[in-house]
Amino acid sequence: MKPRVYITRKLPEAIVKKISSICDMRMWNEAETPVPREVLEKEIQEADGLLCLLTEAIDDSIMNKAKHLKIIANMAVGYNNIDLDSATKRGIMVTNTPGVLTETTADLTFALLMATARRLVESSDYLRNGEWQTWSPMQLTGQDIYGATLGIVGLGRIGEALVKRAKGFDMNVLYYNRSRKPEKEKDLGIEFSSLESLLASSDFVCVMTPYTKETHHLIGAEQLGLMKESAVLINTARGGIVDEEALYRALIDKQIWGAGLDVFEQEPVCVDHPLIKLPNVVTLPHIGSASIATRTKMAELAVMNLLQGVTNSTPENLLNKLEVK
Ligand code: NAP
Ligand code: GLV
Fold this sequence. Notes:
This protein is of the alpha/beta class. The protein has helices spanning 13-22, 37-46, 60-63, 84-89, 102-117, 120-128, 157-168, 182-188, 195-201, 221-226, 244-252, 274-277, 292-310; strands at residues 4-7, 24-27, 49-52, 71-74, 93-95, 149-153, 172-176, 191-192, 204-207, 232-235, 258-261, 281-283. α5 crosses α7.
């Protein structure tokens, strides 16, 4: 009997073919709408493997319905949508897709930093709306990137890839991380800093940690209050790491100069969200890893993990160290 797997979103044809050659596969056949919870609750009951996206909450209650589930393969590096402890307790393997999206996400993070600093969206709208009457000395002026200080909160794979981009702009780079990385300091020419001092000294702060209990609202009113009035906050990690209400207040009160956000506490974010309406905020719909090549590699990696899990070999990107039965 072929292992039974459920895929929570329509995947490219070639990938679907590969899965179907090995598994009895069922898939939510829509590209733009997430699988309804009740469908997932039904499908998970008989599945040996699940390939899901960050849009699905794979919590204890849904795992409770699964009778045979061996593996949950997330098509994302972040896995805060999955209750890892509950999966481990039940002997279910969990995997993610690290590495293949690092450079693409670092590109987007730096692009967002530049777009926010130089007011690209606002300037483009200004032109399109017919407001451009003349060249004027202080018109649409922003913040310099070249030679500025970048503070990276969370120096993992993407944080480190950001350093390479920043060094090309002669930026001075500070980092704060759960664990200090002295060898990286030497190799990359960066300096470790407490979170407080990084916030106070940086012109740009990029948040690059995973979203966990410890990082929930890591950047709140107190932290924003430490930042320079000319500083820009960039979040391409997860929305919940930044307290959005506090960020809104800090932007309105001109405690900080601007923000670039690819992620939100609630996604998809509502168009009426107050942050979206601010001219000094550049907002994106969670597109950090969205290049054709990278999304294809993520899907392929997630499928490889899924197939390894359902065929009783240890998946490449196993997050919970379980013995494969
Ligand atoms: P990673 O290599 O695991 O790096 C995460 C870093 O954060 C590690 O250096 C880790 O420290 C540090 N960290 C963890 N908890 C911390 C805490 N409480 N305080 C300070 N530092 C902490 O992950 P990655 O591949 O760079 O990805 C990072 C995150 O980016 C993902 O989890 C995901 O949520 C997000 N992401 C978003 C997009 C997007 O589309 N916008 C795309 C990809 C990723 P240690 O070295 O001590 O472990
Ligand atoms: C995207 O947000 C990811 O975690 O891969």
